[in-house]
Design a protein that fits this description.
globular; alpha+beta; three-stranded antiparallel beta sheet; 19% helix; 2 helices; two-stranded antiparallel ribbon
Length: 84
Amino acid sequence: MTLVSFMLWLLAAAPSERIHISTVPCKSVADCWLDADSNPIARPKSKRGRALPKPDCGKNIQWLRNRLSCEQQVCVVEHIGDKC
């Protein structure tokens, strides 16, 4: 499966606002991060080597609402909704 066909498959499988596929290259989720708008970005140098934030209903609600992954060598964010 090529990257383009994989991206189209992801988009067809879920509403467009549910999955954000970036052009940020990655080898693992350790290369990915979320910006303030919950879009996938390259992990900032200041965050390298640190674990992803623990999701909670307070200051880390952004991480509770989204699942960050590295799929087909690009960072992907899937909106999974609120749990609070």
